Amino acid sequence: MIKAKRSFHFLWSGQALGNLGDILYIICLITLVYKETGSVLHMALIPFAKTMSLLVSGFIAPLFIEKYRRSALLIVTLAAKTILLLLLCFLASYGIDTPFTYSLLYILIIIISVLEGIGSPARRSMIPDLVKEEELVKANSFISITNQTSMLLSWPLGSILLVVWGEQNMLWLTFGLFFISSVLTAQIQIKEKEVNKEQNSNSKWNTIREGWYLIFRSKKLRTLTLMDVLENFGHGVWIAAILYVYVDTAIGKGEEWWGYINAAFFAGMMVAGIVVYRFSKRMEPHLGAVIMISTLCLLGLNVWFGLTSSAWAALLVSFIFGFPQMARDVSQNTLIQQTYRDKQLAKVYASHGTLVYGTFGIATLVLGWFAEKYGIRPTYMLVSAMFLLSFFIAFTNRKVLHANRHSDVLYEAN
User: Fold this and answer.
1) CB of 27 within 8 A of CB of 154?
2) Separation of alpha carbons 364 and 370, rounded Å
3) What are the tens digits of pLDDT across the range 315-365?
4) Which residues contact 99 (CB under 8 A, 6 or more apart)?
5) Gyration radius (Cα) of the chain, Å
6) Are 60 and 209 in contact (CB under 8 A)?
């Protein structure tokens, strides 16, 4: 268990540095492209290319998960991302003022994002192999704290570093972060099953659809996935563009409050992670109930946020929002990890990630159109209806959510 604990520390520390590097390099490239071109379209294409690449990688990730050991896959994808970021550093030094260099820039962004989408399911599926089952809630909350801290620090840190160091030096810093992340990840020691040659002879289509099959085979995962689709659609109201309109029209404040509300949201998520970590032992036997209660709280908070005209109330809701959201996310992750193991779990995460990115991408377009046509407050009411439907699904399937790993399998068998 000592080796497993050390490996878990290598996993989360490598992930923390990698997440920080991922956000910092995107901030740096957005700034660099805007300075070079003055085009908002070129600037917006960077996060768009990243999101679409992550969506596509969810479909092809099972092919790599099936063929390679998860630890090797994670190390190779991280090392490849590090090398590509080094190429980005040289490209930025050369300049991106020609059609060829623009094209090369976006190609590198797409490949880096695809590698991220392939490696992420492998990394997430390792957590149950590195901690005891009764410590899964604590481990997932610790990982969530790390992720939220990285997100909270990266944006202000990125802004400061851009002013102090400039884009090119900042890119070299992100290369250093990726390099250290790769070194830490290479230290992970995990027992894995040997690759089954007979399984590798399966058709590529069967391999790609296995994650979807595993989700729909388990009623617990079907329930969690359907809830996730509805709630991720609802999370579309928290994107920067809709929040900007909300601040202007609903609470009548300036741009600074847009920043305050965003900062309060991430701060709330970070503090919530600490609280969930502290009470993880009490949560562990009641994960299904935690998900149901959290969904109901998120419903109420969306209604409150959408109807209030007080800026201070909106700020408070934004901070509180992180508590039920964090509790729900940690509980859901733990339930998923209790359902499958090894490569099966990695394939489930790959398919689940495809749904998450796809749903969120559609939501940003649909909710943006809805807000423009019907107004910002009706948009939040629409989202609240999504959470209400999600709660109804959870309540209807409450016995399944409360079922342990073995009873879920028996239920499906019957």
Assistant:
1) yes
2) 10
3) 999 999 989 988 998 888 888 888 887 888 888 888 888 888 888 778 877
4) none
5) 21
6) no
Q: How far is CA 190 from CA 89, 196, 317, in A?
A: 33, 18, 41
**Structure pTM?**
0.81
The Cα 170–Cα 93 span in angstroms is: 12
Q: What are phi and psi of 96, to 5 degrees?
A: -120, 50
CA–CA gap between residue 25 and residue 85 (Å, rounded): 9
Give the type of residue at 284.
E
Nearest Cα to 62, choosing from 217, 191, 228, 215? 215
SS3 of the chain: CHHHHHHHHHHHHHHHHHHHHHHHHHHHHHHHHHHHHCCHHHHHHHHHHHHHHHHHHHHHHHHHHHHCCHHHHHHHHHHHHHHHHHHHHHHHHHCCCCHHHHHHHHHHHHHHHHHHHHHHHHHHHHHHHHCCHHHHHHHHHHHHHHHHHHHHHHHHHHHHHHHHCCHHHHHHHHHHHHHHHHHHHCCCCCCCCCCCHHHHCCCHHHHHHHHHHHHHHCHHHHHHHHHHHHHHHHHHHHCHHHHHHHHHHCCCCCHHHHHHHHHHHHHHHHHHHHHHHHCHHHHHHHHHHHHHHHHHHHHHHHHHHHHCCCHHHHHHHHHHCHHHHHHHHHHHHHHHHHHCCHHHHHHHHHHHHHHHHHHHHHHHHHHHHHHHHHCHHHHHHHHHHHHHHHHHHHHHCHHHHHCCHHHHHHHHHC
**Residue pair 267/319 in contact by the 8 Å Cβ criterion:** yes
Structure tokens at 288: 């299904």
Q: Which of left, alpha, beta for 396 (phi over 0: left; psi -120 to 50: alpha)?
A: alpha
Residues in the chain: 414
Q: Say which residue, 84 or 1, is predicted with more confidence.
A: 84
